[in-house]
Amino acid sequence: MGGRNGGYAVAALLAVAGALAVGHGARDREPGVHYRDFGGPRALWHIPDGDALPASPPSRIEIPGIGVDAPVMRVGLNRDGTVGVPPLNRPERTGWYEHGPPPGSRGPSVVLGHYDDLGGPAVFHKLHEIRPGARIKVTRHDRSVAVFRVDAMERVPKWEFPRARVYGKVRYAGLRLITCGGKYDRADRSYSDNLIVYAHLTGADGR
């Protein structure tokens, strides 16, 4: 899978803007203003290679600590080269970037979700409340459940999106969750920042 992951990283570098529209300022909120980043990039330096699972697309994601239990759909690339996101009429869904490894396989798997929509909170509305060590469970099409541990979280301006850190090649089975953060700009109809959660595979259930 090393070659596939490398090509994925190159493609993702061109597609990073896909996370830029995840959120719609329904109530002029500032997601994540009160959270403190934990771990930071240093938390990713010493993650062991560990085991990985055979490739199987995800179907559902659960984050018990923040009340997420949501279906996962595939998203790809838009015509302008940006990463797609779930449609606005499906705010309860998350989107797995299908040109990268599926959750549980070796490499950086990316799942995106809206912070809100015009009707109110969406699936990743409470992502900023996640804590280090929190468990994330991803049910896959082969009926296995990949279990991840949260390592780090950061909120960064969208123009400083850490492409290599999110999409770059890693030897372990990683997971990156992405949504919006920061202030809502009514003129651009977009939030100023991205909130990124990093996790790694610790085991599997149902095998």
Automatic annotation (TrEMBL):
<keyword id="KW-0378">Hydrolase</keyword>
<dbReference type="InterPro" id="IPR023365">
    <property type="entry name" value="Sortase_dom-sf"/>
</dbReference>
<dbReference type="InterPro" id="IPR005754">
    <property type="entry name" value="Sortase"/>
</dbReference>
<dbReference type="InterPro" id="IPR042001">
    <property type="entry name" value="Sortase_F"/>
</dbReference>
<feature type="region of interest" description="Disordered">
    <location>
        <begin position="83"/>
        <end position="103"/>
    </location>
</feature>
<protein>
    <submittedName>
        <fullName>Class F sortase</fullName>
    </submittedName>
</protein>
<dbReference type="Pfam" id="PF04203">
    <property type="entry name" value="Sortase"/>
</dbReference>
